[in-house]
Amino acid sequence: MSFNALKEKGLSLDKQLRNWHLISRKPYNKNKIDCYSRTRQILMNGIEIEAWNFKHAFSRLCPDNDLCKTIAMMRRIEDQQQTTINWLAPKDQSVLETTLAYEQVAVDLTAWLAQNETDKYVKDTFDFGLLEDFDHLYRYAQWAYMEEGICPNDIVQNRTDIIVGRPTQHHHNCNALRIRKPYDKTKTSPQTKVNILTVVSAEQQTHNYYAEHGFAYGNHTLRETYAEIKDVEEEHVTMYESLIDPKETLLEKLLIHEFCEVCNYYTCVEDETDNEMKKIWEFMLDVELGHLQIAADLFKKHENKDPEEIVGEEIIIPSRFQSQKDYVEEILTTQVDTRLGVDKNYSKIKDLPQDWISYDIQRKANELGSPTESTISIISEHIGRDIVCADDKLKEKEIIILSKGLQKQALAPDTVYPESLEEKIRDYEKNQKIKEKLEKEIY
Ligand SMILES: [Fe+2]
Ligand SMILES: [Fe+2]
Ligand SMILES: [Fe+2]
Ligand SMILES: [Fe+2]
After folding, report:
1. Which ligand approaches the C-alpha of residue 126 most closely?
2. How far is CA 282 from CA 78, 87, 276, 278, in A?
3. Which member of 159, 198, 273, 428 has the greatest number of CB atoms within 10 A?
């Protein structure tokens, strides 16, 4: 369906202010909600945080008082939207449950974006980040079981596989090396701009969530695990935001932000299965169409250019949540040994120079061990092996993936080696057979 957002009026700004009753809505039921309604709620919270944050940065850099007044009024609305969306999460959804959902967002969103990205370099960057968040999901899944007895599939609902990815101990890079090549704003498509801003918003909010909640647990290794993964999310924000052309003007960025919000809400309205949430997405879409009109008018007035040159005439679908198991498996099995190259490119482990700068970072950060590695040793002590949620075909590849993903240089002292994990899995399977036999005899 053709939908030109710039031609829609939306709700005018003077009608967007809501009372407290309408701002704070009834939370969803964590036991009934579809996992992809939850991922939409998490993503749109991140999109609103970015919309609000960007408008503060805008005002701090803008000497035009009239412009600042308009931005201030829009910013308050972004903030109200954020409250409504974030507070749809229920009180009884634990930090670890929410964490699994955050990583499900990262995996399935990034996989969708990678397959809908025409810029090869940007796609490679999405694929690279994808395997890191995929590993975070695996590490947190162990803790969700150990701390709260949660089966990870209660949250991801069998739509996302949980198995080792690129080991988190190898995600620690020199942050300067994370900086990628920006697109050229005069040549890139609106889709690439929206794709990148969507993932930046998601990663930034993931970082902030771990920063604000990682200390919620008493278990010291779990707190360290949050600290370790939060640090990787900082790297992810650095990596994805560096793809954006820094030569975009503030008003151009404002236009792209509002268009990005429109596209994401448009996708939510199309895909939502929960009636209450769908009504919220419809309202929010109307609000954002109103913001887009303002941003387009400001752009025309101050820059004397056509907004369609920047955001095009077609709506974009940046966040269609659906199971991406096949795509993720393909990237996992072929790219787990990919690393950040020294020329802003991507390289295989075997081709890295001996003095690769991230080795120093990894040696320092992991000198007393990597908590995400300890996590696997601890769960193995508890139940005999790691928790994996995937079909048998992928499960059989676990040791091969781990062997390929480990980097011989700068390994953490508490690394779980493939040989040791393989032995644990073998013993576990043997014990399972004995247990099944005993259960049959007794019950
Ligand atoms: Fe917004
Ligand atoms: Fe992550
Ligand atoms: Fe991430
Ligand atoms: Fe907006």
Report:
1. 3
2. 15, 17, 10, 6
3. 198
